[in-house]
């Protein structure tokens, strides 16, 4: 049985750090409110010349280096983003060109904060279906560019950045002892689309628009939706919460992460947290957190790693893999 195994990982962050203290001078907020409600202490904000594609390219190059590969070894690039450089072409083809890659194919996936989980699931399907051997999966965002910087209920929550992994086809025995992706679970329900959306777009306003969110409504659904896909992942593999070595959740809010871990029975020592440093970087948050924990040696070969996310749409999903 073919399994998709993580061969490399990399990240990129903008140069500029924006602290909660600086936000106090921009909107009516406080470091205390932001930390208490979200766990966020700072976020990175893209400056001149820094775009979703430039950050994605840098993360991709780092992941290729870590894997000991070059763009010539890649068959497919999938970029998860809701903040593309242009309405079209896809940011993925932009990054493909920046990497000097003129073979294979590249496309974007748009599932907001669940984007990385959707992109990994798509890559896994291409690999298991024999359509690609090595896939560069990138989560890259510049949410700072769609924020309303006068709206304190949203502008304090988000940040910019990118993370990438290289997935490679390897032969497995078809058991949960295999390295690689063991199951993926995706869901969406467009009935919730107006709880978290951007109020512009090419086909409606002809503008890019700004992010709008009913934060309390999102919060109310988050833990239940995350639990739903994680329980399905356990059912599909026979694994349980006790088998999880590392939970790498989407980093939206420390309270959602803590609440989900508690409900799932996963101790906080096994949860990777980067939301304090990065804020919510949407599709980039999971690969940024994954690289932080794999880079400092917490995640080791053979570990069972659970990725989960919930975001605009609503979309939600989980990936269970052996590192
Ligand atoms: N600074 C100070 N006060 C604030 C701020 C701020 N930045 N923002 C809101 N407030 C005020 C509100 O106006 C309100 O005041 P009021 O009581 O006088 O009306 C008060 O704080 C409480 O507001 P709530 O919205 O009830 O605060 P809550 O505890 O729900 O926290 C938060 C808000 C952090 C947004 C929370 O609801 C949350 O995290 N929701 C989930 C959001 C999320 O994770 N979104 C991303 C999903 S992923 C994606 O797809 C992008």
Please describe what this structure looks like.
The chain is of the alpha/beta class. The protein has ten helices and 13 strands. The strands form four sheets. Strands 1-7-6-4-5 form a five-stranded mixed beta sheet, with helices on both faces. A four-stranded mixed beta sheet has the order 8-13-12-11, with helices on both faces. The longest helix has 23 residues, at 215-237. The mean pLDDT is 98. Bound molecules: acetyl coenzyme *A. Acetyl coenzyme *A binds at residues 29, 33, 37-38, 112-113, 152-153, 156, 196, 213, 215-216, 218-219, 252-253, 256, 280, 282, 311-312.
Main features:
323 residues; alpha/beta; binds acetyl coenzyme *A; four-stranded mixed beta sheet; 2 domains; Peroxisomal Thiolase, Chain A, domain 1; five-stranded mixed beta sheet
Helices and strands in order:
Elements: E1 2-12, E2 16-19, H1 20-24, H2 31-38, E3 42-45, H3 52-67, E4 76-80, H4 91-98, E5 105-109, H5 115-128, E6 134-142, H6 152-155, E7 160-171, E8 180-188, E9 196-198, E10 211-213, H7 215-237, E11 246-249, H8 254-264, H9 275-278, H10 285-295, E12 304-311, E13 315-322
Parallel strand pairs: 4-5, 4-6, 11-12
Antiparallel strand pairs: 1-7, 2-3, 6-7, 8-13, 9-10, 12-13
The structure holds acetyl coenzyme *A.
Quick summary of this structure?
The chain is 32% helix and 26% strand.
Query: What is the number of domains?
Result: 2
CATH architecture annotation of the largest domain: 3-Layer(aba) Sandwich
Q: What general outline do the C-alpha atoms trace?
A: globular
Write out the CATH superfamily name of the largest domain. Answer: Thiolase/Chalcone synthase
Overall mean confidence score, pLDDT: 98
Largest sheet: spatial strand order: 1-7-6-4-5
Given the structure, what is the number of helices?
A: 10
Rounded to the nearest angstrom, the distance between the terminal CA atoms is 17 Å
Order of helices and strands: EEHHEHEHEHEHEEEEHEHHHEE
As a whole number of angstroms, the C-alpha radius of gyration is 18 Å
Q: How big a fraction of the residues is strand? A: 25-35%
Percent range for helical residues?
A: 25-40%
Largest sheet: 5 strands, mixed
Which fold name fills CATH's third level, the topology of the largest domain? Peroxisomal Thiolase, Chain A, domain 1
Uncertain runs are: none
Number of strands: 13
CATH class categorisation of the largest domain = Alpha Beta
What binds here, in terms of ligands, is:
acetyl coenzyme *A
């Amino acid at each position: 049985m073919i399994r998709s195994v993580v061969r490399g990982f990399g990240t990129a962050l903008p140069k500029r750090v924006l602290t909660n203290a600086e936000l106090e001078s921009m909107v009516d907020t406080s470091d205390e409110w932001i930390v208490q409600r979200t766990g966020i202490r700072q976020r990175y904000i893209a400056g001149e010349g820094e775009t979703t594609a430039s950050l994605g390219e840098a993360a991709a190059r780092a992941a290729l280096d870590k894997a000991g590969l070059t763009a010539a070894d890649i068959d497919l690039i999938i970029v998860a983003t809701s903040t593309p450089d242009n309405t079209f072409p896809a940011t993925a083809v932009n990054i493909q060109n920046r990497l000097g890659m003129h073979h294979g194919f590249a496309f974007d996936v748009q599932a907001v904060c669940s984007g990385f989980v959707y992109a990994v699931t798509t890559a896994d399907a291409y690999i298991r279906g024999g359509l690609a051997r090595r896939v560069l999966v990138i989560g890259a965002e510049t949410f700072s560019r769609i924020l309303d910087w006068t709206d304190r209920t949203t502008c304090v929550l988000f940040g910019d950045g990118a993370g990438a992994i290289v997935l490679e086809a390897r032969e497995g025995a078809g058991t949960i002892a295999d390295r690689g992706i063991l199951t993926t679970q995706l869901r969406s329900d467009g009935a919730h689309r107006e709880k978290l959306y951007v109020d512009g777009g090419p086909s409606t306003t002809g503008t890019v628009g700004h992010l709008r969110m009913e934060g309390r409504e999102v919060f109310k659904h988050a833990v239940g939706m995350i639990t739903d896909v994680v329980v399905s992942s356990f059912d599909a593999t026979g694994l349980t919460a006790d088998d999880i070595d590392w939970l790498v959740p989407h980093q939206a809010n420390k309270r959602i992460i803590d609440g989900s871990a508690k409900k799932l029975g996963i101790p906080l020592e096994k949860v990777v947290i980067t939301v304090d440093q990065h804020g919510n970087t949407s599709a980039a948050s999971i690969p940024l957190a994954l690289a932080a924990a794999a880079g400092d040696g917490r995640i080791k070969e053979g570990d069972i790693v659970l990725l989960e996310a919930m975001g605009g749409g609503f979309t939600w999903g989980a990936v269970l893999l052996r590192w």
